[in-house]
Structures are given as structure tokens and as C-alpha cells.
UniProtKB/TrEMBL annotation:
Residues 66-85 are annotated as: Disordered. Transmembrane segments: none annotated. Residues 89-377 form the NAD-dependent epimerase/dehydratase domain. Residues 73-84 have a biased composition (Low complexity). CDD domains: SQD1_like_SDR_e. Belongs to the NAD(P)-dependent epimerase/dehydratase family. This is NAD-dependent epimerase/dehydratase.
């Protein structure tokens, strides 16, 4: 049963980055006047490695109050030529890798931004003994530093979108014009550790997105949903991948249908379910939505995160959350052979984190129509794993780093050699100016890895999750 605790006095919610969720309860007594809080304490779903049944995160809403003299965003209605209030954008999952960079970018551009996050991504690190290569401070310190540098406020709502009461309050309080939804468990390996992680991934992702859809329907019917999907929904078909839809002629009749989905993990399957639910509600309720089927993102710096070390974005390199390019850069920096899974022919779309924030801004500035479900393939280049290893090897040589490559057994169930040609024109047509994977960017990534190589835990580099050996019992990934 949920217990509601209303706080009538000024409070400050400290981060649970390293001390775990209990520190949130203990810190409710010492908040500065820049935050107000309403807490709903529920059975705590922390996916504990030692529990058979996980309980749910309790929710804390901490909303920053505008200070005297604060400069709010200065957006305007360009279509009418008249000054209006800034477009209000709710970034769900705004403490995460893509969400944090996007929140700062939109705030800098004059949007009024609210971050909604339950901080569970930080808790996953505590569970599995992982850590970002780059040191990251609490979400509260991040937001305070951003305000001190820019005089721009970012509102903060700490809570779980699976808690509809919390989400309803966030919606009615902030009144978003657009919602950017990053708030999902985003790791395929995490979803394949064991039954509890598979169930958590689908429950959190699918039900959380359903709650967002119902919140838009009930409280902000004209709000534009910008949802982060994944190119992994498509799989690796032996035909070109279109952007969301494909026109088919069958038995003399022609129709345009959703592109067939071939998800390759419980995580990717959750994204497929999301897409179907969003498409249905666009038809049934007239919701406007853009599904950004994103490729693999690389890079750690944007113009905003470079402003101060307290604004650093996270850099995952481990076998659960780290992507191939990040892993390769860290492996090169510490003298570990690059670990290519299997034959290394696995080909995917890639893009720079600077292009992620650019794509989201373009989607917001050019919203879908009421009842429209748009799908954009969000990537700029395609690479195979072998190609990435070769690029990192050459970049390492320029920096005087000897880089070797080895093949390791592929922990995933996937084609290791395949045709791959995905279309990605719609965002370019809206004005995307891509940052391509150049030598200078690889040098930058390698230099970041070298700068923080003392923080590398080499035990986390090798794959630790097998698609074929997923179990029903809770499993601890070795730290």
C-alpha cells in the first residue's frame, strides 16, 4: 500500500548515486529552499540481486523553484512572429546519457525544461559493481551548476513513470508542450541477465510508456511525444530497412504497412511493444508522436557538457551498458586487446551524441500532426564491428598506442555476417547537420579514455551476459 508524505517545509533531496535509495529517505531532512518535495513511499522495487521478487522504487518529486532575477527561456512562436512563453519540454530519463545532454541542449536553446527521473540507472551501477568512466555528480549538483553558469533553471521531478499518480502530478504541475521519453531500461545485455531483469525491462518500459500515453491523453492532449526507439526493432533483414513503414504489393493489392520487426532481446522487444502502443493511441486518441529509432550513440561531450566538469556526461564501457566503440576506446587506453564478438560482421547505424540532441530538437521544432505516428531512423553512418576495431586501431597508432584485436565467443544470438542498408533521410530533410566519425573525434574519445584510465575496472571489460544461458534465478554479474 502506498503512503503519501506531504512536505510543507522546504526540503532538499540528495542524490542516491552511490549510497543507494535508502539515502534518499535519510536525506529528506536537509534540503535547501531551492527545492520543494512531495514524496510517495511505496514498496521499493530495487531489483535486488538477492531477492526473488523486486519491489518498486518509491517516488520523490523535487521541483526547482525559480529564484529572483532568474532568466527564463526566451522561446517565441516563430510562425506568428509574436513573443510567447517558452516551449515547455519534459525530458523523462533526463539524468541518463542521452537525456542529460538533451536537457542541457534544450535549456540552452531557450526551452523551459523539466527532468523526470527515478535515478534507477545510478542504482544499476551500485547493483552490478559498475561505474561511469567519467566521474558524474548528483543530478541536484548538475542542475545547480547549470543554473550558476547560465542563469537557466531546469525543473526536477524525481519519481517513477510507472507510478501514474506521480506522473499525473508532474504533468499537471509542469504542463508540457512536448515530452521527450528516454526513461527506459536501455541495455539489451541487462535484459538478458535473468528472469527478473527481463521482467523489469518489459514492465518498466512498456507500462511506463503506457502511463505517459495516458497522461498525455488526460492532461495534455495537444502535447507532442518524442519517443526514443531503437534501430534494433528492425533486426537485420535481407532487404533495405525503410523508415518505419514499407509499401507492399501482395496478390495484386498494395498497402503501406509498419515495417516488420525482428527484435533480438527482451529489451528490443519492449521497444517493439512501445511502438505498437504508441501507433494505436495515435489512431484512437489523436496523439501526436514521433518515434526516433536511434542507432548506437557514441561520444561523451556536447557544447553544454564541456562547460564544466560537474556537467560531465557518463561514459559506459562495461559489458552490460557499454557500446562497442566505447569499449574499444577504453580497451585501447589500458592496453587490453579489442574484443570483437564472433566474426565481427555485425553492422549497425551509429551517431554522435551531438547529433542525438540535434535530432530531438528538430523533432520538437517540427511536431507531428494530431493523430500522426512518425518514425525517423536516427543515425548518420553504418559500421561493422570489424570496421570500428580498425578505426580505433589506426587512431591509437597516431597517439602512439599499440592496439591489438582478438575475437571472443559471441554472447549474443545474432547474425555475424549480414546485409544491412537502412534509410535515414527524414531528419536530414528537417535540417540535421551530421557530425561524422572522423579521426579527430576518435582521437578525442581515446584521449578521454586515457585521461580517466585510472578509473577503469578491467574486470568489467569482457562480456558477462549470455543470451543462451539466461536463467530464471537472480544472477549476480561479477564485479
Amino acid at each position: 500500500m502506498a503512503h503519501l508524505l506531504s512536505a510543507s517545509c522546504p526540503l532538499n533531496v540528495s542524490s542516491c548515486s552511490k549510497n543507494g535509495p535508502n539515502s534518499l529517505k535519510q536525506s529528506l531532512a536537509s534540503l535547501p529552499t531551492s527545492f520543494t518535495s512531495r514524496t510517495s513511499v511505496q514498496p521499493f522495487k530495487n531489483l535486488s540481486l538477492n531477492r526473488k521478487n523486486a519491489q518498486r522504487l518509491f517516488s520523490i518529486r523535487a521541483t526547482t523553484l525559480q529564484q529572483p532575477g532568474t532568466k527564463a527561456g526566451s522561446g517565441s512562436d516563430e510562425s506568428s512572429g509574436q513573443q510567447s512563453r517558452p516551449t515547455r519540454v519534459m525530458v523523462i530519463g533526463g539524468d541518463g546519457y542521452c537525456g542529460w545532454a538533451t536537457s542541457l541542449h534544450l535549456s540552452k536553446k531557450g526551452y523551459e525544461v523539466a527532468i523526470v527521473d527515478n535515478l534507477v540507472r545510478r542504482h544499476f551501477d551500485d547493483q552490478l559493481g559498475l561505474d561511469s568512466l567519467t566521474p558524474i555528480v548528483s543530478i541536484h549538483d548538475r542542475i545547480r551548476k547549470w543554473r550558476s553558469l547560465t542563469e537557466k533553471d531546469i525543473n526536477l521531478y524525481i519519481g517513477d513513470v510507472c507510478d501514474f499518480e506521480f506522473l499525473s502530478e508532474a504533468f499537471t504541475s509542469f504542463k508540457p508542450d512536448a515530452v521527450v521519453h528516454f526513461g527506459e531500461q536501455r541495455s539489451a545485455p541487462f535484459s538478458m541477465i535473468d528472469r527478473s531483469r527481463a521482467v523489469y525491462t518489459q514492465q518498466n518500459n512498456v507500462l511506463g510508456t503506457l502511463n505517459v500515453l495516458f497522461a498525455i491523453k488526460e492532461y495534455a492532449e495537444d502535447c507532442h511525444l518524442v519517443k526514443l526507439g531503437t534501430m534494433g526493432e528492425y533486426g537485420t533483414p535481407n532487404i533495405d530497412i525503410e523508415e518505419g513503414y514499407i509499401t507492399i504489393t501482395h496478390n495484386g493489392r498494395t498497402d503501406t504497412l509498419p515495417y516488420p520487426k525482428q527484435a533480438s532481446s527482451f529489451y528490443h522487444l519492449s521497444k517493439v511493444h512501445d511502438s505498437n502502443n504508441i501507433a494505436f493511441t495515435c489512431k484512437a486518441w489523436g496523439i501526436r508522436a514521433t518515434d526516433l529509432n536511434q542507432g548506437v550513440v557514441y561520444g561523451v561531450r556536447t557544447a553544454e557538457t564541456e562547460m564544466h566538469d560537474e556537467l560531465y556526461n557518463r561514459f559506459d564501457y562495461d559489458g552490460v551498458f557499454g557500446t562497442a566503440l566505447n569499449r574499444f576506446c577504453v580497451q585501447a587506453a589500458v592496453g587490453h586487446p579489442l574484443t570483437v564478438y564472433g566474426k565481427g560482421g555485425q553492422t549497425r547505424g551509429y551517431l554522435d551524441i551531438r547529433d542525438t540532441v540535434q535530432c530531438v530538437e528538430l523533432a520538437i521544432a517540427n511536431p507531428a500532426k494530431r493523430g500522426e505516428f512518425r518514425v525517423f531512423n536516427q543515425f548518420t553512418e553504418q559500421f561493422s564491428v570489424n570496421q570500428l576495431a580498425s578505426l580505433v586501431t589506426k587512431a591509437g597508432e597516431k597517439l602512439g598506442i599499440e592496439v591489438k584485436t582478438i575475437s571472443v565467443p559471441n554472447p549474443r544470438v545474432e547474425a555475424e555476417e549480414h546485409y544491412y542498408n537502412a534509410k535515414h533521410t527524414k531528419l536530414i530533410e528537417l535540417g540535421l547537420e551530421p557530425h561524422l566519425l572522423s579521426d579527430s573525434l576518435l582521437d578525442s574519445l581515446l584521449n578521454v579514455a586515457v585521461q580517466f584510465k585510472d578509473r577503469v575496472d578491467t574486470k568489467q571489460i569482457m562480456p558477462s551476459v549470455s543470451w543462451r544461458k539466461i536463467g530464471a534465478k537472480p544472477k549476480t554479474v561479477s564485479a
